Amino acid sequence: MRRMSPRAGTTTVELAIAAALLLSAMGAVLSTASTTLSLWGSMTRTGRLEEGAARLVDGMVEELRFADRATLVLTEANGSARLDFRVPVGFDAADDEVEWSGIVTYQVAPSPFDADATGLLDEWQLLRVEGGATRIVADRVRAGGFTASFVDDRLELSLSLAGSDRGRALTALATTAVAPRNRSEP
């Protein structure tokens, strides 16, 4: 039979060092995975915010494309753009005339809700007003976050939304341009 030397096998100290190294490596892997998942979640929420902003701007473009250029007025309200215009709602064949809507307004107004839970009412909403009926088009509009300007025969629009994710500020910006097609007869 063979005798074991006093140096054969592993000592308790060696096992403790190996366990510490293994735990350190596992901790690093878990930390990296946690950070990656957090970043992925934040990027997903940012993507959703950007997609929502783009969808809102696209919806406004669909309406503004048919706006009456003669009534399209661009002003400023609450530090953001305000748009007033009319759109065709029908055609009177007997009089051979287009029937126009009442004035449609897009404007930014203070939100009555604390959406980011800071205790401050510092949020804004984009509203659509027509015939006395007001509809919230977008929440969490950044201060000064709705802009519009005329460039040649086009109206350029920009909408900036804000959000948060576990203390991180998220922003989304959607921009586009539209050329209104209609002009009412004087």
> Distance between the terminal alpha carbons, to the nearest Å?
116 Å
Mean pLDDT: 85
Largest sheet features: 7 strands, antiparallel
Number of alpha- plus pi-helical segments: 1
State the strand order across the main sheet.
Answer: 1-2-5-6-7-8-9
Residue stretches low in confidence (pLDDT < 50, at least 5 long) are none
> SSE order, as H and E?
HEEEEEEEEE
- Radius of gyration, in Å, reads 30 Å
Helix content: 25-40%
Structure description:
There is one protein chain. The chain has 186 residues and is α+β, with helices and mostly antiparallel strands. The chain has one domain (46-178). Helices cover 28% and strands 41% of the residues. It has one helix and nine strands, in the order αβββββββββ. The strands form two sheets. It has a seven-stranded antiparallel β-sheet with strand order 1-2-5-6-7-8-9, with helices on one face. It has a two-stranded antiparallel ribbon with strand order 3-4. A hairpin with a 2-residue loop joins strand 7 (133-151) and strand 8. The termini are far apart.
